[in-house]
Design goal:
This protein is α/β, with parallel strands linked by helices and 181 residues long. It has 6 helices and 6 strands; from the N terminus they run E-H-E-H-H-E-H-E-H-E-H-E. The strands form 2 sheets. Strands 5-4-3-6 form a 4-stranded parallel sheet, sandwiched between helices. The protein is elongated and about 65 Å long.
Length: 181
């Protein structure tokens, strides 16, 4: 988004009107042990249904033309388009997932579900040098997975386990990501 107005308590040098920003819309309690350690993303009290002062409704207002956000939840950026900035958070989650799984060149990786998170897993695993197998119920998403670097796809109606064993010569996969909510 873009800053349209700021409150009187906001540092206007740091958050000038017109500055492009990413917005953290989940609200942590800032009182639990996770929040006190600086790990607000793990807060058990994260809420999307709060009532923000100055707004007539509850909720984060993510589809509203204007939303009210505390400056602590603003992350200024420059040098990339809004479309590129919008993918930063999902891509960082996938990067973390890939790092935890320790995907290596030559690994065989199965990605189940080819929505945005699944397709990002396909792309990143392929860039890591892994042989990627993608599975989804939607044929269009499987075509997208092939474009993103999947070597094989498994469609609706196919036996996932049997197909994976056929593709891998009975070996199976090294790593599997289930991205289906």
């Amino acid at each position: 988004g873009e800053i349209a107005a700021v409150g009187t308590c906001v540092d206007q040098d740091r958050y000038p009107i017109g500055q492009t920003v990413a917005v953290g819309l989940l609200t942590a309690c800032n009182a639990c042990e996770f929040c006190k350690e600086g790990n607000q993303q793990s807060c058990p009290n994260l809420s999307q249904n709060i009532h923000r002062d100055g707004l007539p409704y509850k909720g984060i207002g993510g589809l509203a033309e204007y939303i009210l956000v505390e400056s602590v939840n603003l992350f200024p950026y420059t040098g990339v388009s809004a479309e590129e900035a919008a993918i930063i958070e999902p891509l960082s989650c996938v990067h973390q997932s890939m790092m935890r799984a320790q995907v290596q060149p030559g690994d065989t990786v199965l990605v189940v579900g080819c929505g945005i998170m699944g397709l990002l897993h396909v792309k990143m695993a392929a860039l890591q040098g892994a042989a990627v197998i993608a599975a989804d119920l939607n044929p269009a998403r499987l075509q997208d997975a092939l474009k993103m670097g999947a070597r094989h796809v498994i469609a609706e109606g196919e036996n996932l386990r049997k197909k994976v064993l056929d593709i891998t010569g009975g070996r199976g996969v090294d790593i599997a990501f289930d991205t289906v909510p």
